[in-house]
Amino acid sequence: MNTVHNTYDYIVVGAGTAGCVLANRLSENGKYQVLLLEAGGKDNYFWIDIPVGYLFTINNPRTDWCFQTEPEAGLNGRSIGYARGKVLGGCSSINAMIYMRGQRSDYDHWASLGNRGWGWDEVLPVFRKSESYQHGANDFHGEDGELRVEERRVNWEILDAWREAAEECGIPKVEEFNRGDNFGNAYFQMNQRSGKRWSAAKAFLEPAKGRSNLTIKTEVMVQSLEFDTTDTCLRASGVRVRLKGGEEIVYSARREVVLSAGAVASPQILQLSGVGNGDHLAQHQIPVKHHLPGVGENLQDHLQIRSVYKVSNTVTLNQRVNSLVGKAMMGLEYLLFKKGPLTMPPSQLGAFAKSDPSQPSANMEWHVQPLSLDKFGEPLHKFNAITPAVCNLRPTSRGHIRLRDGQVGTPPVITLNYLSTEEDRKVAVAGLKMTRQIMSSKALQAFSPVEWLPGDDAQSDEALLQKAGDLGTTIFHPVGTCKMGSDDMAVVDDRLKVHGIDGLRVIDASIMPTITSGNTNAPTVMIAEKGAGFILADARISARD
Known about the structure:
With 545 residues, the chain is of the alpha/beta class. It is built from 14 helices and 26 strands.
């Protein structure tokens, strides 16, 4: 085996959303040599830039790792696809593009757990720093950042009517989300620039690519972290990787190694490196470097339950896509004006509400889609329909990421334990009932909605729960597997340093102690911004010493 040593100041593992932000910020001042490693490929696939291309990037092995969950009891024994981005930009290159921060209560809760500096008032300026908001700066938005946030570029009559229907049911129209309390209904804002997807790679990595102190390598699979052991501590000293041709190389880090491979891969890399629950590692004959039982635990995700209603007297994406004329018109509208259905994310309209009055804030979110299909990556249905999908924003079920074997490249065991608590089952049934209430409102009756899924045969709570298990699927928001905190199951502290190991941080969605109330990409950008700030601040302190 030919082993070559190369040394950098910082090594960032994973060029997804967090990794792209970190690569930009850590290389910005020119003082530090930064290496960014990505196991996937370049983000040059045609369908990445075109927003509706999510239909062709999810469940596509060119752009998606195409993981599968374990069979889930809460999903009536089903295993489901678990998309993770396999290109520069990670999931931001294949996701729904929705810009959603969550709610004030999410971050204030993190702070209440003892995580200093993570309350809403402290993270809001960090969100604003990254943002290039279409309407300019205000108390809630920034305009000088790299991450473009724009309004939708296509309208659907049926979605306007759904907003009216939601208001009839007590979910008022609001101007926008992202101000701390999301109760209400509004059109989503999204990460696009002039009708094109604006991924983290486009926003943060492209401007940094010309810097002489930033090295970006794709199709590089991390085998393990490297450690130096002294009498007093364990220190991360670098990473061992395998290149596409099979050659193994050790890259050394003078200052820090940063894991930003996401809530699935970051704990997997730690476990393969001997960091995790000692009993689990022993099962796979992996020598324990550091017993850290929380690695891979605390997995949380938003389970969305996708109701489908056939509609009449209006146009949906199903009708446009299933017509040659419709396809041609969509292509022409996009080519000439960068508007129309090809600019749309899977969900354009959202709503937030409480499942019952006892909830302290909105704990359900709808993603309303002017389309229907069995699952993403498969064709749209031949009939006209919409999909009001509802999810529990604060699930109490917890899953885990664990090794399937001790081999690098083997997909991990992904267990979500969806609907494993009484609270989650109660919210699932409440969500389906409220969806029916909205769909039966006066504002939608002109379109003669007919419930196709879950179907009129499901009326009792027991029947609706059964249907929730049949219809429920991931909304691709895994978090929490390297959680931040100071308890026995915490993996990183509130400066994102791994407990018990020097020179190693985890900076991505896996550090969330609890999941945010909404889509998780914008919070991941914020986490990376704060993490980069911690690293640079510590470097300045070190220089003074």
